[in-house]
Structure to design on (208 residues):
């Protein structure tokens, strides 16, 4: 599966805000955007005023970088949101929040979405007792997400839980027992996204 493999701090600097792509490092003075706020590239500041198209595109890119999805994946989510009853922008953000790698990260099992994706791909996570190695799997209400009962899996997740500094959203409940697990209490809403997103700009861009 294709994925971005470049320096992630450049993405935060390009979008002009912290996207927490490096886990706990983003909360320290080593954070790339803390050390250098200017966008990447030779220019020290943007030339002139950003165009209307640039504002729309920047919002879409911010969401893609935040959830770690590429253009083709994002377009698939947008098409699904368009054909689902309700506000397209809210449905789109709900679909992205339902991704398994996002949920594993929000529970604290992975310090970043990329770390959570690696946990899933390597088979350290089960859903309702069954192994799942698909990071884009869409969670549903009542799903039980549990760490695999083996020492390597448990050590990785316990280490992440001990270092995690972010609160668990209220649509999830996490039990840090001998085998950490989380339960999906309800489907996530657009309000559960932890960074400000102007969904209307994304809808206007993708609807052109």
């Amino acid at each position: 599966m294709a994925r971005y493999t470049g320096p992630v701090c450049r993405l935060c600097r390009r979008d002009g805000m912290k996207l927490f792509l490096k886990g706990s490092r983003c909360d320290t003075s080593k954070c790339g955007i803390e050390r250098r706020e200017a966008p990447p590239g030779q220019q020290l500041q943007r030339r002139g005023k950003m165009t209307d198209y640039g504002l729309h595109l920047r919002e879409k890119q911010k969401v893609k970088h935040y959830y770690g999805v590429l253009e083709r994946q994002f377009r698939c989510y947008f098409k699904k949101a368009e054909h689902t009853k309700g506000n397209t922008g809210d449905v789109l953000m709900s679909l992205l929040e339902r991704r398994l790698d996002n949920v594993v990260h929000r529970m604290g099992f992975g310090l970043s979405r990329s770390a959570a994706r690696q946990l899933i791909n390597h088979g350290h996570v089960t859903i309702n007792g069954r192994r799942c190695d698909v990071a884009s799997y869409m969670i549903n209400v009542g799903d039980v997400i549990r760490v695999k009962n083996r020492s390597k899996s448990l050590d990785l997740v316990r280490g992440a839980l001990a270092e995690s500094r972010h609160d668990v959203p209220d649509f999830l409940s996490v039990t840090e027992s001998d085998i950490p697990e989380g339960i999906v209490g309800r489907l996530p809403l657009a309000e559960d996204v932890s960074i400000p997103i102007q969904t209307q700009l994304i809808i206007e861009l993708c609807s052109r």
Remarks:
- The radius of gyration is 18 Å.
